[in-house]
Design goal:
The protein is α+β, with helices and mostly antiparallel strands.
Length: 108
Amino acid sequence: MGETLPKYDVFQAIADPTRRKLLHLLGDGELPVTVISVQFPMSRTAVSKHLRVLAEAGLVKDRKVGRETRYRLEAEPLRELQQWLAYFERYWDNKLAALKQYVEEENN
């Protein structure tokens, strides 16, 4: 049988500010869910649901250590996002170049 597609893609996963904060926290290293959950004004169950979305998008991996579940960032799927944003950088670069030119002309 064929490979099943993830339930969530990277874009859906990072759309939520809580999940973006989770990724930021995990960027510093692996953390247990108990430590992660105290960083948010929501229940541990709610944090776990956000972590599940990130895991289904391939952005985090979990592992059991005794009775504890630890999560770590998997940054590779973010490359898709980086490539998508890179396309639009030329528009930002053009706007910044035009602004620079305008400011320099005003100062002369």
